Amino acid sequence: MTEMKYQINSDIPIESILTLYNDVGWAAYTSDEQKLKEAIKNSLITISVWYEDKLIGLLRAVGDGLTIIYIQDILVLRSFQRQGIGRQLLKIMLDKYSIVRQIVLMTDADENTIMFYESCGFTKTQTLKLQTFTRLLR
Fold first, then answer.
1. How many structural domains are present in the chain?
2. What is the pLDDT of residue 13?
């Protein structure tokens, strides 16, 4: 039986990236193929998951790797979700950057998503008496 292979490498074929992002409905990223490719290339870390020759998951983070990391993207093909792949992607990144004090992410307010991140040790900022701000260009 073929095992899933996790790799730390940002040199991923753009066709595989587009397939993954489109599968999970992240069309805002795929509308500019070159920008997405450069964003992945310029990330602090990109961890990919492969099953046979198919990209099935990806985590991408930005930051300085010493004091702060922002998890920009974590996605898994719909047909491979709920198999521990997202959790393993997070584990690899958190193990690699275990000394970093602040690891931040922003995500949808979907209850399942919230439960997933809380089960991985993340805390909603409002429970820490913090406020999060963002500025999104549309």
1. 1
2. 94
Counting DSSP H helices and E strands in the chain, the numbers are 5, 5
- Does residue 1 register a pLDDT over 70? no
CA 53 to chain centre: 20
Residue 6: its pLDDT value, please? Answer: 96
Query: Angle 107-135-64 (CA atoms, 0-180°, nearest 5)?
Result: 70
Q: Please, are residues 51 and 84 in contact by the beta-carbon 8 Å criterion?
A: no
The structure tokens listed for 9 are: 């490498």
CATH code of residue 113: 3.40.630.30
The two three-digit tokens of residue 23, written as one number: 């599968």
Asked if 26 and 10 touch (Cβ cutoff 8 Å), the reply is: no
Euclidean distance between the first and the last CA atom of the chain, given in angstroms as a whole number: 44
| 11 located within any domain | yes
pLDDT in tens, 48-106: 999 999 999 999 999 999 999 999 999 999 999 999 999 999 999 999 999 999 999 88
Residue 83 resides in a domain = yes
8 A C-beta contact, residue 79 and residue 27? no
| H or E element that contains 99 | none
